């Protein structure tokens, strides 16, 4: 089976996430890195977007899941994102997602969670 890898690097968004008092009152930035190994079902036809998995749909799904509601833990958020992607896009064979909080600590660039799922 042939696969194609789609990836996002540092997709930036503001989300309502966290359990600390200041996190409950406002949004904070998140960075998302994601890789998708997608089953190639047919040859690419350059003028037909339906011959590939449209990465705009992947991006929209990630943004929707991350901004839908307040979530207390990054672990919970990353599980929701991975579950939704795997359910919505059956052509995804493997997903690897990393969600990080760049402003969590002043002494490091970011802290986060990484998750990988396969069919």
UniProtKB/TrEMBL annotation:
Keywords: Folate biosynthesis, Lyase. Its EC number is 4.1.2.25. It is an enzyme of class 4 (lyase). It comes from the Bacteria. GO terms for molecular function: dihydroneopterin aldolase activity. Gene3D superfamilies: 3.30.1130.10. It catalyses: 7,8-dihydroneopterin = 6-hydroxymethyl-7,8-dihydropterin + glycolaldehyde. Pathway: Cofactor biosynthesis; tetrahydrofolate biosynthesis; 2-amino-4-hydroxy-6-hydroxymethyl-7,8-dihydropteridine diphosphate from 7,8-dihydroneopterin triphosphate: step 3/4. The keyword Lyase applies. Residues 6-117 form the Dihydroneopterin aldolase/epimerase domain. Belongs to the DHNA family. Catalyzes the conversion of 7,8-dihydroneopterin to 6-hydroxymethyl-7,8-dihydropterin. This is 7,8-dihydroneopterin aldolase.
